[in-house]
Amino acid sequence: MKNETQAKVRPWRAALLPLVAALVLAGCATAKVEAPTFEAPAQFKEQAAAQRDGAWTRAQPAEAQPRGEWWRAFNDPVLDKLIERADARNTNIQAAAARLAEARALARSADAERSPQVGVVAGGVRSAGLDRNLSPRPSTLLQAGVAASYELDLFGKLSKASEAAQLDADAREGLLQSTRLLVESDTAQTYLQLRAVDAERALVRDTVEAYRDTLKLTQSRQRAGDVAELDVARVETEVASTESDALTLDRRRAELEHALAVLAGDAASDFGVNTDEWATALPTIPAGVPATVLTRRPDISAAQKSVMAAQARVGVAQTAWFPDISLTAGGGYASQDLSDLFKWSAKSWGIGALLALPIFDGGRREAGVQSASAQLDGALANYRTQVLVAFKEVEDQLSALRILEQQADVQAKAVTSASRATSLSDSRYRNGMVSQLDLLDARRQELANRRQALQVRSAQYQATVGLIRAIGGSWDVKVAASSGDQTVAAR
Question: 3-class secondary structure for the chain?
Fold first, then answer.
């Protein structure tokens, strides 16, 4: 009889072994988690143009500067304090840090699912007629003990879910760094705009004073009968118009100061930046920054981690086709009398195993796989978009710097010529050799050219900060080249 029973069992075992092996192999065949890549050109297009034109020179390394604190290259103590304040108090950074903390907590929660779960249980039940061995009369059953459970991760469901959660946390960390860089660069650009406005205000007010001097001279000459009242009205018009420009710049400065307050995490009513000379240094970006530097941009890194998390979730969705196997165990005491609950005779225990495999679910598992795959496709598209935008931003700023440097040289010549023309016109007007219109026209041209020069200078600062943000921060980086490791260092 025993041999017959064994003979019946063995064919079942033989039939189950291939099925189990197939399930294990299928679990190993789920989607792999691999970082997406992109083909980066050897250099940016605008760098080649700059090298042909000879417009750039390699800046001196500044290894003494702390890595990543790129704003120190501008050598402006006020800017340093503003960015340090923004790093500590900006609400957008604080919100991104909170999202990172949440993602890390979720990652720890997902990882905890892979560990055995142990707990203490206690309870009591009063019932009647629920068990044929019990009396129809109501009775009480008290229990106390320890329960444990563990889900076998044969097909990688739990490990992939934990990996996806950790990759989400890594992506959040990248987004935090991206938010920090964005706030820092916005702070720098806003501050530099404010300093440019300060310089322009000073220029316009100096021009107003010059117009007032001309007005006094014209009024004196009008009283002497040398010029008509029309000439006085013309100068008065220039004085009022230029004062209006100065007030417009005052309004613009107030707006920039208020924007800085928000970036620094302060109320605009309690915040202020003193008017000072625009003495901020303009760093030189080297012509040798490689295109591979974009791989360290925090937003690209975050997009990359999001793709990998989506890949892991495809694997989690695929494991829904495999059975869930759980082991449970419990031990303790059970008694109808509280006084006997912890006696040795009241001990109880139990162990169990549960295998669950849905047979028909109306297509829910297939829909889960399709949803996860669609999310992966979307993450890949977002990653490629982020990379393309990164190249665009770098090329935009590189071209801006190259052209602005040429424009600054040309504009400087225009300012020199306009200043010389104003000086000559003023001298000849005082001697009665040219009309007042000639003098006013010369001064208008000089003011316009000087303001244009300031705007070009401001644009150079803005493009420099924009390039720093586009390449992901400080450009003191080590990159792997085909001929070995090389260091690109400059500020």
Answer: CHHHHHHHHHHHHHHHHHHHHHHHHHHHCCCCCCCCCCCCCCCCHHHHHHHHHCCCCCCCCCCCCCCCCHHHHHCCHHHHHHHHHHHHHCHHHHHHHHHHHHHHHHHHHHHHCCCCEEEEEEEEEEECCCCCCCCCCCEEEEEEEEEEEEEECCCCHHHHHHHHHHHHHHHHHHHHHHHHHHHHHHHHHHHHHHHHHHHHHHHHHHHHHHHHHHHHHHHHHHHCCCCCHHHHHHHHHHHHHHHHHHHHHHHHHHHHHHHHHHHCCCCHHHCCCCCCCCCCCCCCCCCCCCHHHHHHCHHHHHHHHHHHHHHHHHHHHHHHHCCEEEEEEEEEEEECCHHHCCCHHHEEEEEEEEEECCCCCCCHHHHHHHHHHHHHHHHHHHHHHHHHHHHHHHHHHHHHHHHHHHHHHHHHHHHHHHHHHHHHHHHHHHCCCCCHHHHHHHHHHHHHHHHHHHHHHHHHHHHHHHHHHHCCCCCCEEEEECCEEEEECCC
